[in-house]
Task: inverse folding
């Protein structure tokens, strides 16, 4: 299996190169060059496997130049006990039709751990396979969850350093403490004076600065990225869609071959794209429900055929979905256009030049065969958190609540009673202030800090605070660097020569 660019102007590469490079030289995203299919016979066997064995089977089909042994080691290291608290992806049944796939039992209590625990393993093997001898430096700007998950994933990885920039006033105190208390011999964290865009623009400038990169290369250093356009992050996400399905089969909730729905709270379109890939490769999926928050570029796209970023950026209680350009959508356009690179290039040029593009009807119809989309307002999201708790005694975070709200809208609009899995992307304790306020009322949280609210939520619900979020206000602060956006290149230089 080789990889090619969605824009069609780069040569085919092995999986290892796609992982190390992250983005293709022509600016496109790497996608598998051939279609992957899991037959019914294969799936009969897959449905009996443990999570680790299932992961190996699926990764085997995509990681062309990896040996079986390499895949074994990657999976063993990523999903072993000690990295995840119990099963990496447990399924909870709430009602006859509704199930929850909990993806927040990893070291940072959000779903990005499922991918960012194994990406460093992929990267280590990819360095072996390509013979790249440079030191790899993972450079990331974060609005909260990605940074911590990358730090946890890459800490102490041989031959790889990781640098995370976060906006000083753009993350929650909990998220900031998670990052500045990070241990590890190869990790660097800096606060940027500004917002997420400032940090993100600073990182992009560093990647795009040829002179700067040439200087690093002369010192044997190569920059790489851990963000969700890397195919190495997408691949491990395909696994849990198969797992959730087979889990329902094993429990007798569905029969083998019966189609189900998934509802996915969506930002950069990475998580939900993995669901689409699973469906295209043979997983019996009826509808994939694409849930947006008030930043509803995607929901509007499904209503109008036009992807339009001309709008105000809104800050919501589901911040990981506050995104106007969903980078991974390009991979869907590529597939739905019958792998037509020229069409993709035209749409992406239009997005860059005009901030919008419209898709042809045949592409739109292909997309609509799989997806349904709508959005949840802030009020609706809070209502859902409260209703789900009152009805099922189950606590959901705001992102998951967006997925559930949009699922309700889908059922009302379609009357569909197909069994459904709602993908739960973060622990409710990670976004405790919004959750506690939604359930217990503003008056009960006002004046309390995040750590007091954490305890309040735990006390009132009887649920334990997840281990990664416990006592982080008591940990030693190890990273104190603060810089201006224009000083980010120097800050990177300082981090790399201080070793
Ligand atoms: C990143 C994230 C999302 C969005 O996932 P995408 O793959 O970017 O669509 C949703 N919820 C949480 C909690 C996240 O951290």
Result:
């Amino acid at each position: 299996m080789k990889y090619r660019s969605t824009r069609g102007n780069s040569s085919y590469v092995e999986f290892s190169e796609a992982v190390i490079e992250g983005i293709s030289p022509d600016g496109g995203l790497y996608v598998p060059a051939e279609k992957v299919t899991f037959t019914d016979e294969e799936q009969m066997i897959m449905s009996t496997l443990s999570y680790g064995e299932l992961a190996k089977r699926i990764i085997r089909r995509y990681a062309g130049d990896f040996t079986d042994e390499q895949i074994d080691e990657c999976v063993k290291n990523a999903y072993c006990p000690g990295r995840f608290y119990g099963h990496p992806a447990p399924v909870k049944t709430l009602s006859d039709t509704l199930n929850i796939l909990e993806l927040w039992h990893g070291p940072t209590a959000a779903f990005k751990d499922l991918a960012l625990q194994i990406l460093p393993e992929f990267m280590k093997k990819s360095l072996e396979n390509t013979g790249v001898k440079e030191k790899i430096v993972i450079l990331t700007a974060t609005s909260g969850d990605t940074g911590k998950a990358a730090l946890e994933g890459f800490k102490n990885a041989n031959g790889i350093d990781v640098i995370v920039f976060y906006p000083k006033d753009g993350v929650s105190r909990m998220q900031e403490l998670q990052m500045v208390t990070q241990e590890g011999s190869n990790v660097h964290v800096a606060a940027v004076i500004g917002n997420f865009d400032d940090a993100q623009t600073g990182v992009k400038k560093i990647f795009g600065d040829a002179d700067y990169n040439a200087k690093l290369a002369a010192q044997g250093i190569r920059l790489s990225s851990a963000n969700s356009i890397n195919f190495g992050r997408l691949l491990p996400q395909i696994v849990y869609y198969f797992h959730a399905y087979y889990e329902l089969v094993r429990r007798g909730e569905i029969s083998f071959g019966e189609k189900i729905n998934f509802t996915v709270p969506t930002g950069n379109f990475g998580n939900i794209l993995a669901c689409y890939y699973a469906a295209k490769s043979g997983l019996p999926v009826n509808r994939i429900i694409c849930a947006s928050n008030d930043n509803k570029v995607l929901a509007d796209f499904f209503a109008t055929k036009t992807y339009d970023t001309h709008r105000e950026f809104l800050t919501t209680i589901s911040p990981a979905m506050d995104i106007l350009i969903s980078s991974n959508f390009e991979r869907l356009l590529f597939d739905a256009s019958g792998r037509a690179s020229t069409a993709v290039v035209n749409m992406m040029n239009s997005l860059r030049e005009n901030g919008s593009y419209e898709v042809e009807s045949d592409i739109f119809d292909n997309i609509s065969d799989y997806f349904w989309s709508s959005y949840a307002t802030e009020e609706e999201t809070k209502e859902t958190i409260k209703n789900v708790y009152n009805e099922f005694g189950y606590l959901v975070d705001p992102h998951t609540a967006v997925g559930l709200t949009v699922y309700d809208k889908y059922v009302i609009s379609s009357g569909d009673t197909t069994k459904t899995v709602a993908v739960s992307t973060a622990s409710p304790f990670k976004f405790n202030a919004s959750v506690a306020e939604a359930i217990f009322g503003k008056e009960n949280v006002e004046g309390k800090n995040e750590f007091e609210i954490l305890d309040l939520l735990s006390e009132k619900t009887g649920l334990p605070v997840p281990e990664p979020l416990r006592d982080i206000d008591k940990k030693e602060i190890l990273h104190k660097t603060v810089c201006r956006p224009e000083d980010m290149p120097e800050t990177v230089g300082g981090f790399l020569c201080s070793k």
